[in-house]
Write a structure and sequence with these properties.
With about 260 residues, this protein is of the alpha/beta class. Helices cover about 40% and strands about 15% of the residues. It starts with 12 loop residues before the first strand and ends in an 8-residue tail after the last strand.
């Protein structure tokens, strides 16, 4: 496959994994408003991903739809080969795709563990590796991964996901150091409970939402826009000296017992 020569005047390109809905979709659209062409990644929800792509194109930006299970390294490599062929560059990677089996510790099976860790942990590492290769072509880039408060505090039935998100935060630190010589800035964002489709899979969803409503010092729950604005800050040049950090966006909820 012949490589496209990188044109510095081309529009910048951002990949948002899991961008068919929720935070991923909102982030993809926000980046499009900033002038980025967007790679819309999805695993199952093609219709929803197409709707995201349509909104991006209405803004006047290009949208490349790529189906890839982020837990599969070969699918990751194929996705980045497609990005290279289509755009010849990548400037921003948002590791948003996530999954996980919600079970008490004594009910966790090996398949549950492997599924969760592959998508949430391994996927971040190998997406970052492939992204770095493309980012080097234009002198650098930005990587932001999504975490959650379950990485640092106990949440019921959340062992699989919480441990995988702790891996994301640790990977963020290691990637930040080793990719710094390539002018690649790496950080993470950890959000409090948000009323999205993903939360519908939690058996204790209503309890989590009620806790967030009553016990968030800021006086309200975290909203998708709060996370998106933080991501946009981290991919901006204003955040150049922030490296390897996990920014907690929870209205102060994690400060309380």
């Amino acid at each position: 496959m012949r490589k496209r020569k990188v044109d510095e005047k081309m529009n910048k390109v951002a990949l948002v994994t899991g961008s068919s809905r929720g935070v991923g979709k909102a982030t993809a659209i926000a980046l499009a408003h900033l002038g980025y062409d967007i790679v819309v990644n999805y695993a199952r929800s093609k219709k929803a991903a197409m709707e995201t792509a349509e909104e991006i194109e209405k803004i006047g930006r290009k949208a490349l739809l790529v189906r890839a299970n982020i837990g599969d390294v070969e699918k990751i490599k194929a996705m980045f080969a497609t990005i290279d062929q289509e755009f010849g560059r990548l400037d921003v990677l948002i590791n948003n795709a996530a999954s996980g089996v919600l079970r008490p510790i004594m009910e966790i099976e090996e398949t549950h563990w492997n599924w969760t860790m592959n998508i949430n942990g391994k996927g971040v590492l190998f997406c970052a590796q492939e992204a770095a290769k493309l980012m080097e072509k234009t002198g650098g880039g930005k990587i932001v991964s999504l975490s959650s408060l379950g990485s640092i505090r106990y949440l019921e039935n959340y062992t699989n996901v919480g441990v995988s998100k702790a891996a994301v935060e640790s990977l963020t630190r290691y990637l930040a150091v080793e990719l710094a010589p390539k002018n690649i800035v790496v950080n993470a964002v950890s959000g409090g409970a948000i009323d999205t489709d993903a939360l519908k899979h939690f058996p204790n969803r209503e309890e989590l939402l009620e806790d967030a409503r009553k016990h968030t010092p800021a006086g309200r729950m975290v909203e998708i826009d709060d996370i998106v604005k933080t991501i946009l800050f981290l991919v901006s040049d204003d955040a150049w000296m922030i490296r390897g950090q996990t920014i907690i966006v929870d209205g102060g909820r994690s400060i309380l017992v």
